[in-house]
Design brief:
- The structure holds two protein chains of two kinds.
- By secondary structure, chain A is an all-beta fold.
- Helices cover 0% and strands 54% of the residues of chain A.
- Chain A has no helices and twelve strands.
- In chain A, the strands form three sheets. In chain A, strands 2, 5, 6, 10, 11 and 12 form a six-stranded mixed beta sheet that branches.
- In chain A, β5 (31-38) and β6 (44-50) form a beta hairpin.
- In chain B, 33% of the residues are buried.
- Chain B is an all-beta fold.
- Chain B is 0% helix and 54% strand.
- Chain B is built from no helices and eleven strands.
- Chain B has strands at 4-7, 10-13, 19-25, 30-38, 44-51, 57-58, 67-73, 76-81, 90-98, 106-107, 111-115.
- Classes of the chains: A mainly beta, B mainly beta.
Amino acid sequence: AQSVTQLDSQVPVFEEAPVELRCNYSSSVSVYLFWYVQYPNQGLQLLLKYLSGSTLVKGINGFEAEFNKSQTSFHLRKPSVHISDTAEYFCAVSEYTGFQKLVFGTGTRLLVSP
Amino acid sequence: GAVVSQHPSWVICKSGTSVKIECRSLDFQATTMFWYRQFPKQSLMLMATSNEGSKATYEQGVEKDKFLINHASLTLSTLTVTSAHPEDSSFYICSATPTGYSYEQYFGPGTRLTVT
């Protein structure tokens, strides 16, 4: 079975600074990888996904992530954050089994301050 | 496009009563829908996978008789929490996979259930 580790429960950063949110996964087979963002009292919004092809994936709101198979990582980055990026970020993995069954990490709270 | 709605967004019920939560895919058909539960400041835990026209598949540890799932059409899945207790209070989130696009999953805004 697959699992996802987000080591950082909270990442504080100043506005306009770069940020990296770490995600490592474990699986015995090939996986799909996702990053979702959750704003307070809301559902999840897909930021980006890796299915195949280029290991550098660009998503919405200026975020990008790089799939590193040898390190089993899928870290999320943004070169310059805004106050509005303050939210909970979840990394998720799925093994393709005919339909998608996501396993989520514990989440990282990104706190952007002025 | 790819909008999923949930109703109600917030519900309070008394202990012992049942409450139904609806999940609708508004602009696409969804053969498969998922139900998650999220405790405060924690991650989402998959409760069950719902396929249109068939019985739901529950994750280990989830009580089938307590959390009844019905996926009667390609745009609607319902979760009924039966004989609710305070420990069932949680944030319930559904997601839907467009038919033919098994790697895509779109999430609803969630339903906050409080059992008093």
